[in-house]
Amino acid sequence: MSDDFNMSMRKFLKQVGVTSQQAIEEGLRNADAAAGKSFEARVVLTIPELGVEHEVTGTIKAAD
């Protein structure tokens, strides 16, 4: 793959990671009694023009 592709991919994934972490942290701050609880998370990436739909699931445990 080209350098332009790699750079645009890295930029997109960095934006996804940073903004997702910010959203999760904000959600935890706004939640009542979230400390120590676990939350199921799901992210879905779609690129309709390529027929891509990719899902990642996991668990996020809030700090005590």
Write the layout of secondary structure elements.
Elements: H1 3-30, E1 38-47, E2 52-61
Antiparallel strand pairs: 1-2
Describe the overall structure.
This protein has about 60 residues and is an alpha+beta fold. It has one domain. Helix content is about 45%, strand content about 30%. It has one helix at about 5-30; strands at about 40-45, 50-60. Strand 1 (about 40-45) and strand 2 form a beta hairpin. The mean pLDDT is about 95.
Instruction: Identify the strand order in the major beta sheet.
Output: 1-2
Oligomer: single chain
Q: Which structural category do the helix and sheet elements fall into?
A: alpha+beta
| Alpha plus pi helix count | 1
Overall residue-averaged pLDDT value: 94
Written as H for each helix and E for each strand, in order along the chain, the element string is HEE
Pfam family, one: DUF6494
Brief overview, please?
It contains 1 helix and 2 strands; from the N terminus they run αββ.
Descriptive tags:
single chain; 64 residues; alpha+beta; two-stranded antiparallel sheet
